[in-house]
């Protein structure tokens, strides 16, 4: 039995968060039912949160089922050899109505030792930002464990961290160990390693509807943090109908692709491709069949699907390994 090749899209996995809002519905028409929906996991094989295919031949199947049957055809041979039947990346949309916690993610080594997990290298593409919105990324100047702990205890942590104003189209790359927080009034597309390991160090002293504060992971974070400045912002070209490099790291490559008209894509890398639609609408044609997509859609192109065309007026993020 061989894999039926076509672009795969998935049912969103919606997550309520204390800091979430309703923009995932108003901007992307995601089927949220809560006023505090913070995340839509678009493509995931995190245990307990595995994406389900929403249309076509494999509608209703979990991605993990398909990967167990056709790992090389979906992932690509080299990725299958490295990751087995695990999908190595996680794709999300995030709506921060309020500030997220100040947090850090461990590297592969620490995550493997403590949690038997991948680390969490990630990138953000800002899709929408309210006036005055900002993020927190890294320290203003080189710090130390002692200085960090003193400021954490005195509730002056923000005074030693770097706040960066953001606007639509900004791209940030966050290596593991970078202390960070997404600020209020921002919607982002997030691309990251398949991991749900977050060490929360400060949560603005807020409590939930029952008066409970969320768990902090101050001790775990100490060995994970890089006590240094971070150069997270990435500049990139925006040439039409071209894959403009935005982020390249050992875990993923992300290109910015402004589509205006029709282009042919030849999947020369031995890798799956993912397209996240940031703006507009487009059509994908493959072997005489056409599929239509719009802003907020995330599409997985199996590695075995080699040559196709994209047509429309849209802004896409193109991701592969």
TrEMBL record:
The keyword DNA-binding does not apply. The active site is at 200. GO terms for molecular function: mannose-6-phosphate isomerase activity; zinc ion binding. Keywords: Isomerase, Metal-binding, Zinc. Binds 1 zinc ion per subunit. It comes from Flavobacterium endophyticum. Its cofactor is Zn(2+). Residues 247-320 form the Mannose-6-phosphate isomerase cupin domain. This is Phosphohexomutase. Residues 12-117 form the Phosphomannose isomerase type I catalytic domain. Coiled coil: none annotated. InterPro entries: Carb_Metab_Reg_Kinase/Isom, Man6P_isomerase_Firm_short, MPI_cupin_dom, PMI_typeI_cat, RmlC-like_jellyroll, RmlC_Cupin_sf. It comes from the Bacteria. Zn(2+) binds at residues 105, 122, 180. Pfam families: MPI_cupin_dom, PMI_typeI_cat. GO terms for biological process: carbohydrate metabolic process.
């Amino acid at each position: 039995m061989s894999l039926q090749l076509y672009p795969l899209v998935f049912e969103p996995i919606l997550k309520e968060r204390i800091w979430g809002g309703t923009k995932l519905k108003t901007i992307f028409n995601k089927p949220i039912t809560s006023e505090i929906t913070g995340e839509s996991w678009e493509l995931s094989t995190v245990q307990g949160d595995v994406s389900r295919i929403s249309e076509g031949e494999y509608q209703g199947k979990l991605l993990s089922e398909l990967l167990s049957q056709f790992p090389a055809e979906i992932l690509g041979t080299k990725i299958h050899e490295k990751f087995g039947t695990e999908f190595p990346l996680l794709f999300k949309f995030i709506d921060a109505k309020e500030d997220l916690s100040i947090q850090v993610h461990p590297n592969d080594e620490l995550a493997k030792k403590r949690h038997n997990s991948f680390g969490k290298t990630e990138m953000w593409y800002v899709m929408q930002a309210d006036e005055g919105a900002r993020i927190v990324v890294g320290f203003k100047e080189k710090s130390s464990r002692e200085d960090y702990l003193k400021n954490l205890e005195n509730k002056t942590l923000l005074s030693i961290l770097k706040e960066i104003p953001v606007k639509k189209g900004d791209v940030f790359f966050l290596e593991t160990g970078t202390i960070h927080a997404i600020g209020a009034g921002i919607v982002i597309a997030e691309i990251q390693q398949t991991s749900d390991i977050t060490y929360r160090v400060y949560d603005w002293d807020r409590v939930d509807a029952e008066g409970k504060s969320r768990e902090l992971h101050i001790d775990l974070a100490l060995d994970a943090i890089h006590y240094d400045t971070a150069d997270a912002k990435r500049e990139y070209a925006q040439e039409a109908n071209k894959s403009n490099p935005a982020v390249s790291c050992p875990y993923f490559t992300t290109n910015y692709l402004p589509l205006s008209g029709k282009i042919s894509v030849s999947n020369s890398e031995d890798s799956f491709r993912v397209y996240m639609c940031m703006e507009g609408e487009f059509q994908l044609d493959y072997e005489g069949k056409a599929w239509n997509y719009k802003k907020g859609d995330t599409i997985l192109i199996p590695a075995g699907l080699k040559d196709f065309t994209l047509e429309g007026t849209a802004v896409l993020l193109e991701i592969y390994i």
